From TrEMBL:
It comes from Azohydromonas lata. Belongs to the LysR transcriptional regulatory family. Keywords: DNA-binding, Transcription, Transcription regulation. This is LysR substrate-binding domain-containing protein. It comes from the Bacteria. Residues 1-58 form the HTH lysR-type domain.
Length: 310
């Protein structure tokens, strides 16, 4: 029994005529009759009651008609999904993201996928840059979003975001409501910093921003995760410098002051294996990431195309 025989049977059952069914199938009647007979012999039941004047479904034939239609519909659905997968319209991509990319990049990425490639879904892992690079090299990830730009053979990369920073203070801090607050104004304040081990790009950005203003930060507390940094600031343990996108969530108990570009920038790149054969990945890069990098939010970089490490 194969799908072709099921299609033949359904057509005869719908027409209740071998002549009309053969015309609809663009074939002659004798081969059609033989296929139905072979199907009945294989199943061991009579599906159609035939006389010279009429063709009727038997009780077994009525049941088999319902099952055959269901099987044919499922087969068509499977074929459609396979075609979608082959053209990159449907797939699950394994994605690694630096924590700040979860705030900045993930919402825009999901929105773009919804609009352009709704059949592509993401399996997201919060990972630092080194973890992402290792996972990409051994094919445990399809796509990564990182701060640093490692020179790793076989990895392609594309800038998708270039964001500025914000100074964050407790909402009840005496300086929280000051207009035009500058980084130099909190020179004497204790600082809550990102862990250098877990978020080197953010730690280095904080140091560089302060040094650019002519002072070294008084780091009093260290945290691994952005939520921990913000909670410690909310508790009054100090102030911090965070990517500006964190302010977009309107977190209670905190006051954000955007810093000028001279205070530093946060760059996020997408990286992937250049040899990854996934059609879905290629379409995400070409139709989504390029758009995010060139025509996305106001702070997106406009620096050209994909870079491939030799």
């Amino acid at each position: 029994m194969d799908l072709r025989q099921l299609k033949y049977f359904v057509t005869v059952a719908e027409e209740l005529s071998f002549i009309r069914a053969a015309e609809r199938l663009h074939m002659s009647q004798p081969p059609l009759s033989q296929q139905i007979k072979s199907l009945e012999e294989e199943l061991g039941v009579e599906l159609l009651y035939r006389t010279r004047r009429e063709v009727k479904l038997t009780d077994a034939g009525r049941v088999f008609l319902c099952e055959s239609r269901d099987l044919l519909e499922r087969a068509q659905a499977v074929a459609h999904r396979m075609r979608q997968a082959a053209y990159g319209e449907q797939a699950v991509l394994r994605v690694g993201m630096a924590t700040s990319a979860l705030f900045h990049v993930l919402p825009r990425l999901r929105e773009q996928l919804c609009q352009r490639l709704p059949g592509v879904t993401l399996a997201v892992s919060d990972m630092n840059t080194d973890e992402q690079v290792r996972s990409l090299v051994v094919d445990k990830l399809d796509l990564g979003f990182i701060h640093a730009r490692p020179d790793v053979r076989g990895l392609a990369r594309l800038n998708v975001l270039d964001d500025s920073f914000a100074l964050v203070l407790p909402a009840d801090h005496p300086l929280a409501g000051r207009p035009g607050l500058q980084l130099r104004d909190v020179e004497s304040e204790p600082v809550v910093a990102f862990s250098r081990e877990h978020a080197p790009a953010l730690f280095d950005a904080l140091i560089a921003s302060c040094q650019h203003e002519g002072f070294s930060p008084r780091i009093a507390h260290v945290a691994r995760h952005p939520a921990s940094v913000l909670h410690m600031v909310r508790q009054g343990l100090g102030v911090s410098i965070v990517p500006r996108g964190y302010a977009d969530d309107g977190l209670p108990g905190l006051a954000f002051h955007h810093l000028p570009a001279t205070a530093g920038r946060l760059r996020i790149d997408a990286i992937w294996r250049g040899a990854n054969p996934s059609p879905a990945l290629r379409r995400v890069v070409d139709e989504v990431l390029r758009e995010m990098g060139h025509g996305g939010s106001g702070d997106a970089m406009h620096d050209g195309g994909v870079q491939q490490d030799a």
